[in-house]
Amino acid sequence: MRDYSKVSPKFWIGSTGKKLRAQGGDAQLVALYLLTCPHANMLGLYYLPVMYIAHETGLGFEGASKGLACTIEAGFCKYDDATEMVWVEEMAVYQIADRLEPGDKRSKGVQNDYDDLPDNPYLAAFYDKYSNAFNLTKKRDICLVKQSPFEAPSKPLRSQEQEQEQEQEQEQEQDSFAVAGASAGGKVKDIETDLQKACRETWRRYSDAYFVRYEIEPKRNQKVNSIIRQFVQRIGFEESPHVAAFFVSHNDRFYVQKIHPVEAMLKDAEGLRTQWATGRKMTTLEARSAEQVDAVQAQIERVGRILEAQA
């Protein structure tokens, strides 16, 4: 972790800064975070999952993704979803210098940091941009296949046994959806199709967010399928996927300690939906603070009644 970072006043009034301002507050916050976050290096090219931005800025996964997309559109940085590497293209100039003399020991440090970077699509471009300025001598050229912007990170290949297990779970899921539709007294085919679509999308958003945060897929079985179905039925087909992703980004102490289980998501379904819709996360600390404010207010009112009675 770096002890400090440099941020130029031009961040706010330069041409790129004006473009960021036009994109909105989330873009400015994400851009400032990219310059100062504890994961950054002096090169401006480093590993940064979107969930880190979501957690440490408090924007949530949706807000962080939107803010990052806006910084890219403003030309502030580039981001590769496959490797989760970000490149703030002009950051090295501000953190190091416009140019280093050939005998400057920092040149070797830049080369060493560059050599230690994980494989990513920006290695060759970084070298081409800064080789003369920083006296770099060794170029790395890695060709990687890019994913479309903001797709979930590549997940590990499944074994044949895991594939069979998932197929069995999906069959069980279909059976449970069909029973739900029949018990509702409607057309089984129509209800099953809509419900399945909503459940699958909800699970996808939950699973992707979970994988980004914990770097492992959540366990899925018949019990989990049933919980997801109940959650969708309580929240609604359209909002459930968004609330599920929001839940995984929530930093309530209980959720974090329990590793964001679907049982907790179902238990607090309506409350999570309200927090998602209003953009306000209610953590344990905030709840305790609100309780203390109510207690103080109650004491003030009680003293006021006593004084009135004495008067």
Write a brief caption for the model:
The protein is mainly α. The chain has helices at 10-13, 15-23, 25-36, 50-57, 60-73, 91-95, 106-115, 123-134, 160-183, 188-214, 222-235, 240-249, 253-257, 262-267, 269-278, 284-310, and strands at 45-47, 78-80, 85-87. The termini are far apart.
* Number of helices, counting only DSSP H or I runs of 4 residues or more: 16
SSE string: HHHEHHEEHHHHHHHHHHH
Major β-sheet annotation:
3 strands, antiparallel
How many discrete structural domains? 3
- Global morphology: globular
Oligomer: single chain
Question: Could you give the distance between the termini?
Answer: 63 Å
Whole-angstrom Rg: 25 Å
**Secondary structure: number of strands:** 3
Fraction of helical residues: 55-70%
Q: Give the strand content.
A: under 5%
What are the salient characteristics of this protein?
3 domains; 16 helices
Write the layout of secondary structure elements.
Blueprint (H helix, E strand, L loop, with lengths): L9 H4 L1 H9 L1 H12 L8 E3 L2 H8 L2 H14 L4 E3 L4 E3 L3 H5 L10 H10 L7 H12 L25 H24 L4 H27 L7 H14 L4 H10 L3 H5 L4 H6 L1 H10 L5 H27 L1
Antiparallel strand pairs: 1-3, 2-3
Helix pairs in contact: 2-3, 3-5, 4-5, 9-10, 9-11, 10-11, 10-12, 12-15
